[in-house]
Each structure stands twice: as structure tokens, then as C-alpha cells.
């Protein structure tokens, strides 16, 4: 094929119909409180790692629910497991166990 | 002679106030344009947040109405004032005691005729004319009236109430359902800046009811804010997430399209992640908001009442004289003043009834 020098930019949008929901389903079975998030941002505001890295724990578990798993591994590496996110969550989401469940999902699903 | 009160509007507010005033000994006539009283509530199945049957609420209100003279199927064509007395002229009632719908509600078109135009004397008038539901076709980008699998929340209630199965237009149980908040509300593009307030909790309630009916289905609510303003509402939202696994996506739908199989593609921004999102749903429910009642514009004109920029009728003071108007003897109750829940309508109607009682008794000796 002739290379005309053009490239295709990958679509940024979530296509929920094609999303990979295996991680979400597994994490949800291990930590059902993932569904209780109201997106307030308390967890990401208090996050120790977020002061020094681009980890956004609220976004991380939101994109997983949308079927986007591309940022899980990099995100988990930045987490220091301090648990402040869980202390401040107004809905009682068990974020420490959520992180453990995500690690478990990566072990099982790759 | 006891005072006569005319209540215009036979929905929850009008029925409640009429019943209370009649029980206090006033001569109360309730005028309703539809063939039956009950208003919008007669269409609803179960009410938020406790899922009480709407029919039970109406039955309760009707029990208090035994002394109310109810006239249905008529339209108010003129209201005149003579000092402290009013005359309400209605059109549409036929001489044999039955009733019919009037098709021309303009006062100028009414020629007094014993069989069609009837004057009703009143010392006091309560306007409980209510609201209409936003016409979902105006949000053309959502495809209501174009795509068969886009329905309104009112139509969903009809199905719940009648017990008819909720299926796609292809006759299949929906595997994925979208519920769209703020349709016709908080939207300058349709001329409605205000929040209709009860749609949020209705969307949560209907999501739970759909999950009860189809536990294996996925239900997504698309919202801008979730305004769980009253007691037990936030708990219902929590229950929807925790017990029923309803998903909430923060973002206003931009547009819908139809697949060849009749399913609907919805597009929105998932504003919590900052990315556009699209998904296919089998059924899309539009939570249509409140708009001012159509008949109220002509009644306002007859009386010289003012409306706000939102089109709802102004009270004399929104804090302290919320059931009164600038005109002595004309009172307001319920959704004529803007969006309200059914429990708020009942409370507001009772408040209006007490205000009317105080007003009518003020000219008795010994009262101020």
C-alpha cells in the first residue's frame, strides 16, 4: 500500500458496546461497593500519590466501569496503599479492597 | 348564606383544597376540563420514594370530597369581578347532566347560551390548574416520535399501571435501557431554564422498577446533577446503586440514532472522565419535565395575573403569601406556581384552603 503520509487518529470515545467489562465484573464480585461511587472526588483529592503523580483514583475506577482497562496497571503502580481515599469516601466505597481486587483482576485477566 | 368557592382544576391540589373547604362548611364547586378528576396523578402507577400506589393517594383525597360539587368536561371561558364577588363562566356542560369537552376556550367566542355557557358565582376562586408535561418531540435530537424505542417517563408509568409488559417495539424484553434526565428542563434551547425537580427521583424509581421487572437487564441513567432534595430520596438513589446495580453516567445526551434492528445509539460525554461515550440501548426513556398549563394563560389574562419568566403564575410573595395573588379573593395551589411533588401539592393545597378560610371569615363580626 502506498504511504501517503497520513495517519488515523484513534477515536477517544468510550464505545461501551465494545468495552472490556471483564475487569469491572470481577472487581465488582470481589468488592461490590464499587457501584456506590457518586463521583464527588473526595478520594482523588486526598490521595497521597496524586500529590506527586497523575494518578486519579476516581477516574481509574470510573473508566473500568466503562470498559476501558488501559490505565489500570500504570495507575496501580502509583498507589501507595495509604488508605486515605477510603477514610474520606462519603458513600463507604472500600477503596483499599478495590485496589486489591484490581490487582487480583490483573493476575487473572492479564 | 355560606360563601361559595370555585376551585379550577381537579388534580391533586384542587381536589385536596376543595375537600378541605367543603368540610369547613363552604359551598365548593370543583371545575375540571377533563372527563375525570385526578389530574396527572391518575396516570402514575407508584409514587416516589416509598412506592405508594398513586390510586391510593387519590382514593384518600376523594374520601374527603363528598360535599364538593364536581363538574367535569368543562372549560372556563370568562371570569368577571364585581367588588368582592366573582362570576366564573364555563362552557361545555350539556343540559342533560352529562358533559363534553369544549373546543374553543377563548372568552370572545362564547355567546351566553343556557345549554353551554353557565355562570357560577363565587366569593373566592382557587386556581389549581396544574401543569403539562414537556412535549418530548421538541428535543428532536432524542428521536421521540421518530424512533419507536424512545418513550417518555409518563408512557412508562402507563405501562407499569396497566400491567402491560414493557417490551421494545420489536416485542423483545429490553436488555439495556437508558433513562435520560432533564428532558425539557434546565435547557435554554427549549426555553426552560428551571429544574422540574421531581424527574431525578422519578428516574431513580423507574430504574429500580425496570430492574425488578428485568433483573438481568442493564439500566443507565444519564444525568447532569442528581437532585435528591427530599427525605428518603438520597436513600433511594443509594438503593438503586447498591441493591439494583443501576449505573449513573454524568452527562447530558447530545443525540440519538437508530440502528437497523430498532435499537438506539446514544451519545454523551462521560463528564466524570472527560471522554465522549456512546452505547446502544434497546429502550430509551425520556424524563419529561413540567411546563405551565395551557389553559392558565387565558385565565391569567381574564384576571390580570402575572407570570414569571418561566411561565408559571406568580404568587403575591413567594415566602409569606405563597397561596395568595395580587387580587383579593384569588388564590393559588400546587403546580400552577411551578414544579411540585404530589406530597408538596397536598400540603400546599391544605395551606391554600386555610388561607381561603381566613379570608372568607375575615368579614364576619369579631374577625379582623
Number of strands of chain A: 1
Approximate strand percentage of chain A: under 5%
Number of helices of chain A: 6
> How many strands, what sense, and barrel or not for the largest sheet of chain B?
5 strands, parallel
- Helical content of chain A stands at 40-55%
Rounded mean pLDDT of chain B is 93
Give helix and strand order of chain B, one letter per element, not per position: EHEEEHEEEEEEEHEHEHEEEEEEHEH
Could you state the CATH homologous superfamily of chain A?
Alpha-helical ferredoxin
Helix content of chain B: 10-25%
Query: What general outline of chain B do the C-alpha atoms trace?
Result: elongated
Task: Tell me what the structure shows.
The complex is a heterodimer of chains A (110) and B (368). Chain A has 110 residues and is an all-alpha fold. Chain A has helices at residues 22-30, 42-46, 57-65, 72-78, 84-88, 95-109; one strand at residues 14-15. Chain A has one domain: Alpha-helical ferredoxin (Fumarate Reductase Iron-sulfur Protein, Chain B, domain 2, Orthogonal Bundle). Helix content of chain A is 45%, strand content 2%. Chain B is of the alpha/beta class and 368 residues long. Chain B folds into two domains: 4-130 and 293-361, FAD/NAD(P)-binding domain (3-Layer(bba) Sandwich); 134-289, FAD/NAD(P)-binding domain, CATH 3.50.50.60. Helices cover 23% and strands 27% of the residues of chain B. Chain B contains seven helices and 20 strands. Chain B has helices at 12-23, 54-63, 153-162, 199-213, 233-242, 296-303, 342-361; strands spanning 4-8, 27-32, 46-47, 52-53, 69-72, 75-82, 85-91, 117-122, 124-127, 131-133, 150-152, 176-183, 218-223, 247-250, 255-258, 264-270, 275-281, 283-288, 290-292, 330-332. Chain B has a five-stranded parallel β-sheet with strand order 5-2-1-9-20, covered by helices on one side. In chain B, strands 11-18-12-13-14 form a five-stranded parallel β-sheet. In chain B, a hairpin with a 5-residue loop joins strand 15 (255-258) and strand 16. In chain B, helix 1 (12-23) packs parallel to helix 2, helix 1 packs parallel to helix 7 (342-361) and helix 4 (199-213) runs parallel beside helix 5 (233-242). In chain B, 46% of the residues are buried. The chains are: A mainly alpha (110), B alpha/beta (368). At the A-B interface, strand 1 and helix 3 of A face helix 5, strand 14 and strand 17 of B. Strand 1 (14-15) of chain A pairs parallel with strand 17 (275-281) of chain B.
Amino acid at each position: 500500500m502506498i504511504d501517503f503520509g497520513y495517519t488515523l487518529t484513534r477515536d477517544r470515545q468510550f464505545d461501551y458496546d465494545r468495552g472490556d467489562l471483564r475487569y469491572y465484573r470481577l472487581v465488582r464480585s470481589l468488592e461490590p461497593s464499587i457501584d456506590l461511587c457518586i463521583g464527588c472526588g473526595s478520594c482523588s483529592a486526598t490521595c497521597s500519590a496524586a500529590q506527586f503523580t497523575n494518578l486519579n483514583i476516581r477516574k481509574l475506577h470510573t473508566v473500568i466501569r466503562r470498559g476501558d482497562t488501559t490505565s489500570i496497571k500504570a495507575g496501580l503502580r502509583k498507589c501507595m496503599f495509604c488508605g486515605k481515599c477510603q477514610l474520606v469516601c462519603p458513600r463507604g466505597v472500600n477503596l483499599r479492597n478495590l485496589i486489591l481486587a484490581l490487582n487480583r483482576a490483573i493476575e487473572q485477566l492479564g | 348564606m355560606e360563601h361559595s368557592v370555585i376551585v379550577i382544576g381537579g388534580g391533586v391540589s384542587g381536589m385536596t383544597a376543595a375537600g378541605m373547604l367543603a368540610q369547613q362548611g363552604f359551598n365548593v364547586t370543583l371545575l375540571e376540563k377533563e372527563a375525570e378528576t385526578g389530574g396527572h396523578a391518575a396516570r402514575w402507577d407508584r409514587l416516589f420514594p416509598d412506592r405508594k400506589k398513586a390510586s391510593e393517594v387519590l382514593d384518600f383525597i376523594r374520601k374527603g370530597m363528598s360535599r364538593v360539587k364536581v363538574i367535569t368536561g368543562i372549560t372556563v371561558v370568562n371570569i368577571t369581578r364585581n367588588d368582592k364577588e366573582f362570576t366564573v363562566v364555563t362552557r361545555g356542560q350539556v343540559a342533560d347532566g352529562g358533559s363534553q369537552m369544549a373546543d374553543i376556550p377563548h372568552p370572545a367566542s362564547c355567546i351566553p347560551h343556557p345549554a353551554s355557557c353557565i355562570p357560577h358565582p363565587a366569593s373566592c376562586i382557587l386556581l389549581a390548574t396544574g401543569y403539562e408535561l414537556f412535549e418530548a418531540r421538541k428535543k428532536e435530537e432524542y428521536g421521540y416520535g421518530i424512533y419507536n424505542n424512545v418513550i417518555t417517563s409518563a408512557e412508562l408509568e402507563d405501562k407499569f399501571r396497566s400491567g402491560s409488559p414493557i417490551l421494545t417495539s420489536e416485542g423483545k424484553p429490553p436488555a439495556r435501557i437508558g433513562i435520560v434526565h432533564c428532558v425539557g428542563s434546565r435547557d435554554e434551547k427549549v426555553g426552560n431554564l428551571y429544574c422540574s425537580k421531581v424527574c431525578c427521583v422519578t428516574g431513580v424509581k423507574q430504574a429500580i422498577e425496570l430492574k425488578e421487572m428485568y433483573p438481568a437487564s442493564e439500566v443507565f441513567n444519564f444525568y447532569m446533577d442528581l437532585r435528591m432534595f427530599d427525605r428518603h430520596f438520597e436513600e433511594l438513589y443509594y438503593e438503586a446503586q447498591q441493591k439494583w446495580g443501576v449505573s449513573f453516567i454524568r452527562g447530558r445526551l447530545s443525540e440519538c440514532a437508530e440502528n437497523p434492528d430498532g435499537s438506539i445509539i446514544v451519545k454523551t460525554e462521560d463528564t466524570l472522565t472527560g471522554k465522549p461515550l456512546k452505547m446502544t440501548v434497546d429502550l430509551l426513556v425520556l424524563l419529561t419535565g413540567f411546563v405551565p398549563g395551557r389553559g392558565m394563560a387565558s385565565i391569567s389574562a381574564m384576571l390580570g395575573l402575572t407570570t414569571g419568566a418561566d411561565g408559571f403564575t406568580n404568587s403575591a410573595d413567594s415566602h409569606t403569601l405563597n397561596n395568595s395573588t395580587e387580587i383579593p379573593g384569588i388564590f393559588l395551589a400546587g403546580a400552577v406556581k411551578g414544579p411540585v411533588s404530589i406530597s408538596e401539592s397536598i400540603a400546599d393545597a391544605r395551606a391554600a384552603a386555610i388561607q381561603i378560610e381566613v379570608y372568607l371569615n375575615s368579614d364576619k363580626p369579631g374577625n379582623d
